[in-house]
Amino acid sequence: MKSLAELQAIKDKMKDKVVLREGTGEIRVVVGMATCGIAAGARPVLNEFVQDVNEEGLSGKVTVSQTGCIGICQYEPVVEVFEAGKEKVTYVKMNAEKAKDVVARHLRGGQVVTEYTIGAYQA
Amino acid sequence: MKELSLNILDIAENSVKAGASLTEIRVTEKDGLLTLRIIDDGCGMTEEVLRRVTDPFYTTRTTRKVGMGLPLLKMEAEMTGGEMTVTSRYVGDFPEGHGTEVTATFYEDHIDFIPLGDVVSSITTLIQGHPDTDFLFDHESDAFHVTLDTRELRGILEDVPLNSYEVIMWIDSYLREQYEEDPLS
User: Fold this and answer.
1) Which among A3, A4, A7, A95 is the top mutation candidate for probing chain B, defined by the most B β-carbons within 10 Å of its own β-carbon?
2) Which helix (H) or strand (E) is B29 found in, with range?
3) What are A35-63's pLDDT values in tens digits?
4) What is the C-alpha separation between A120 and A113, in angstroms, rounded?
5) Cα distance between residue A99 and residue A91, in whole Å
6) Which of A22, A89, B6, B89 is the most exposed, fewest CB within 10 Å of its CB?
């Protein structure tokens, strides 16, 4: 059974790590969480990114955050990846499985997953 | 929406965008009636905006706090024979005690009732995305009473962020265990 005492233990364990955990912000993953995104399935996509970034040990350089309507509702769930010195990558019609793929191939492997990008859908 | 929990996420996101420091999400289930209340202390809406807030073709794009969200919730409530009401006190008129309250009722035995779904996931998603604002979640039925107040957690965590992965995982388990707890044990 989870207890508040257990949360206290998590805090004690983590308080020295906080500075390290803030990350360098080298890569920013932004998930659209307006009505259009949520209705299309953004919640599991966001949760998959959060989980995989942590499990892959990428939380030092990758931050996952939310934004409102990006303006391309027909392509939701939409995920944008911002990386210093590189062009923004827009992934569209995402789901949890594709999110897992993006973490492995793009965020960890450094290769844009072209088939999920908006360019691939508009071509 | 496929689940009412997604509407909860959507409406509460509006509360955060309206500058709320505390958003209360209260669900009660009694005698086949599900009542959902989302109460925030955000900037509120003017009477003009409030009058048109359930019109899906009306939007205030500059603030992005009105759109399809409330019309969808209203439709989903009315489909079951329930209703939705919105009251609001605009910060310009009420420098103290401003905010918005959305109340929706649903008859659970109606064929068009949309299930509540994974409400825990909506709560953790809200906290994950907005670690600097507070949420109070309370879900009460005859079988269980699930509560979470991030202000209480914040007091324990001090400077450890609420959206640290370990903390989010703890919140997820903490809530799910409250649902699973046998009330007779």
Assistant:
1) A7
2) strand B22-30
3) 999 999 999 999 999 999 999 999 889 99
4) 10
5) 9
6) A22
Angstroms from B9 CA to nearest CA on chain A: 8
Q: What pLDDT is stored for residue B63 in this prediction?
A: 45
Tell me: the pLDDT tens digits for B127-162? 999 999 999 999 999 999 999 999 999 999 998 999
Q: What is the pLDDT of residue B102?
A: 97
**Tokens encoding B9:** 């996420």
Which string of DSSP letters, residue by residue, matches B105-163?
Answer: EEETTSTTPPP---HHHHHHHHHHH-TTSEEEEEEE-SS-EEEEEHHHHHHHHTTS-TT
Question: Does the distance separating the beta carbons of A6 and B64 come in below 8 Å?
Answer: no
For residue range B70-91, list pLDDT tens digits in order: 999 999 999 999 999 999 999 9
CATH for B4-180 is 3.30.565
DSSP symbols for B148-168: EEHHHHHHHHTTS-TT-HHHH
Distances (CA, A) of A78 to A15, A20, A70: 34, 29, 8
Q: Give chain A's domains with CATH numbers.
A: 22-122 (3.40.30.10)
**Which of B11, B125, B177 is most worth mutating to test chain A (most A CB atoms within 10 A of its CB)?**
B125
Cα–Cα distance between B114 and A39 in angstroms, integer?
13
